[in-house]
Amino acid sequence: RKIFVGDLHGCFDELMFLLNRINHDPKRDELYFVGDLVVKGPKSNDCVDFVRSTNRTYSVMGNHDYELLRVGRATNLIPSDIKIPQFSFSQYAARDPLTMTNHIETAKSLSKQNVEYLASLPLHLSPHPKLRVVHAGIIPNIEMQKQRPWNLLNMRNIIERPTPKHGDLMINNQPATPRQSYEGTGYHDLGAPWVQLYSGPEHIFFGHDAKRNLQIATYATGLDTGACYGGSLTAAIIKCDENTDDIINSLNEEKYKTEDWEDQTMKYQSAGGIIYRLIQQKSSKVYIPMNKQEVTPKLQTNGNGNGNGH
Q1: Comparing C-alpha atoms, which of 204, 194, 218, 239 is closest to residue 131?
Q2: d(CA 133, CA 33)
Q3: 3-state SS class at 272
Q4: Most confident of 54-58, 139-143, 241-245, 295-299
Q5: pTM of the shown model
Q6: How far is CA 24 from CA 11, 48, 58, 131, 259, in A?
Q7: 104: closest CA among 47, 34, 39?
Q8: What is the DSSP-derived secondary structure letter of residue 186?
Q9: Which of 16, 125, 179, 284 has an alpha carbon within 20 to 30 A of 56's alpha carbon?
Q10: DSSP designation for 260
Q11: Neighbours of 306 (CB within 10 A)
Q12: pLDDT tens-digit series, residues 63-118
């Protein structure tokens, strides 16, 4: 199986409950995280420790993982011998590290090994030729190597030009115009969700957008359902043939036997035919209040038992 898990944010207990429910086994499973392993929840060090030390387990870097590294270096909490990523985000106003108390406290709690691991995380992963993992999003029709790091870590929407509501949006003291054919933005109310403009061919699992909660799009699935805000931790599971790396789809589904853990999941199918199942673990508590509290939607089915992809 290939298992994809939403933003952890230090919610280690919820992760353990969820993996136990699906009988996670590092000998048979590949486990992928969409980033933001740390900050907000209570057990960031445990989360990073688990991802770092568990066989066949991987993660991309999230914006809070990066911010922890940036803040930790600026406040001398991260030793100078640890190399941290240097991204050029000069067109965006970075927050003053001294005001980011949650990141500072979390940086203090991490072991040196775990800080080094966070610093080594990639911005995207390709678990299979038909699958991709990023933290936030991508600009469609641009190859991964040319995607801007800021977009991979932070974007939620795509704008083609400034809208009247944000007509005064400035970047480098210039009116905000697309840097390329599309421009990524973190605003929810500027442009459109990037998943609406993305048409494959890879199916992308991503996080970063707890306000929108579970997102089921034709070629993308958003797994951030606000675990740290009292929502749920969500995972997507794709069965695969261990010998050939063939993944379950609408054409070969019959050759895969049904397993007990599937009773707790809902079935979805991407536009490319890939079949995945979603499972949610309700959070134990609200670890940090959300600016605008959202309720995690329950998984819905249509009449034939398949998850509604719209």
Answers
A1: 204
A2: 8
A3: coil
A4: 54-58
A5: 0.88
A6: 17, 17, 14, 20, 13
A7: 39
A8: S
A9: 284
A10: G
A11: 13
A12: 999 999 988 888 888 888 899 888 776 445 577 777 888 898 999 999 999 999 99
